[in-house]
Amino acid sequence: MIRLSICASPFLRYGFTSFVLLASLAVSSGVAFGQKDAPKDIPIRIGEKGVPITERMAYHHIPGVSIALIRDYKLAWIANFGEASRGRPMSGDTLFQVGTMGNTLVTSAALRAVQEKKISLDATINDYLKAWKSPQFPGGRPLTIRDLLENKSGLIYHKYFGYNPLEPVPTLLQVLNGEKPATTPPTRLTTAPGSTYNLAAENYVVLQQAIEDRFGVSYDSVARRLIFDPLGMKRSTFALTPSDSLRSQVAVGHGEDGEPLENGWRVYPESAAAGLWTTSRDFAIYLEDFMRSIAGKPGARILSRENADLMLKALSVDSDGDEQMMALGRDGYNNRKYLFRGGNAQGYYNIFNIRPETGSGILIMTNRNLCWQFANEVRDALALQEKWPGF
Are residues 32 and 271 in contact, defined by beta-carbon separation less than 8 angstroms? Predict the structure, then answer.
């Protein structure tokens, strides 16, 4: 069990009643990063008219949003609307908990470790695991890292909901064993590895334990060496809670009614599955590099094109016609063919949409739970503005 020391702040408790006024007052741009062309508004088309983004935020009960636009593999601008917490405007330095959107970065980190020959995709996972061992499915072959990354492990638990930071938090081992104070079941294989596709969050929990055991340090330390430091992502962490120097910049999470979460956010010992803290600026830097790898452009610092291509293998097609790959989806509607990944940690919703062949990207980060409708509105408005095919 992990006990956290967190000072509760007055800004964690405020309502949504004054949101329209707050949102209209707290509109900022990416000028702090030298992006003077960041828009002061992103009109959202509703019917035949364009509606200011702050009106749509009020309609969807969204306190704040940070939006990054990438053109030609470079961050073009960051636009911020609303508030990170009461009286504190949203900015490109605001930290969000990005949930499963972070799985794309986690997969890149694993493939970077493969590239450095620290791990092997097809080695038996139990060769790396020490404190916990994966059970063998009767008649099945041993579980591998490739199975985990391809969501073909035989694991099925699909979502973690986090823990109140002022209450007992389980260790990763307690999560895997389903032991209190964990509120989730023990990690068990339900089908033979390699046989069935299932988008399970458990894949990343087992991967996290294997990586920590292999490297002998925390998952955050591994991600820092493999991803954060090479890319200069100075405000990103897989720590359970951000450091004291970053905590004042955390966006308070909110429920679907726009009310703040008790004590501000949730803690995820399942860090690789749902616990990445990052900013719009930092994650845009990662997306720039990731797209360069996919497109085979010079200057990519994390993955070779060969390893990036592993993430583009179609593994399944969902009910919407979207191809599912390693921590990515490919939109199948109207022949759009862009790549995307969304993430919902409690109190937040985030999503990116990228076109690696042109180096174009749209990143949307909010501090409200499950506001995918609003995110789609923003995506559609910007994709139309940027003349993306299919919009």
Answer: no
